[in-house]
Design a protein that fits this description.
The chain is α/β, with parallel strands linked by helices and about 260 residues long. The chain contains eight helices and seven strands. Helix 3 runs parallel beside helix 4, helix 4 packs parallel to helix 5 and helix 6 packs across helix 7.
Amino acid sequence: MLKGKTALVTGSTSGIGLGIALRLAAQGANVMLNGFGDHAGPKAQVEALGVKCGYSGADMSKPAEIEALVKATEAEFGSLDILVNNAGIQHVANVEDFPPEKWDAIIAINLTSAFHTTRHALPGMKARNWGRVINVASTHGLVASAQKSAYVASKHGILGFTKALALETATTGVTANAICPGWVLTPLVQKQIDDRAAREGISVEAAKRDLLGEKQPSLQFTTPEQLGDLAVFMCSPAADNLRGAAINVDGGWAAQ
């Protein structure tokens, strides 16, 4: 379905981003990966699906590197058709104890980076009259949790940005939508589970059960592959008039 298209997925060397990249590649899209850590393995996984794959280690907190990333994608593949803003970080603390530098970093990577990628990608999308901007938000873009003020603020912000962008592109072939996952067993979430197990002196499995039981009524983790399939749907003709939506995949979390 996406043969001839190119997707840039930020924060895509593991977790949700890699899951989305792989599903888009399975539909024929070339992919530009981005992130820290090992990228050879993820790149090989994408290429095994018969598409071209590039990689950039651009720091999503630095506007100049973000601009270079978009330009590199367009130069390598000829276009940037699908932009998935997925890069994200987390820090947990009460507001009065929250390090200001952590707040700034979370807002920069989780929210401001999406503005910079989008503003550079939009001209090409509009010129071709086709594009998809998919922002990976969170159930925390819809509801809040204590000790996650920066993360919650950034994810609420990304939903507002998505809606404004959808209105600005409403009469074009470019759409903007958001995915709001609940608990997905990514490295970011695994670290929270491990920290919880250590803090409470319980097993990792018990920490998983407790985590899900507090928020996610299904008592199941969403998988990166399921989120990837939703991203594929957002790129399909069936979603041509899906604009400014925030679709939560959270096992009933926000329904409570």
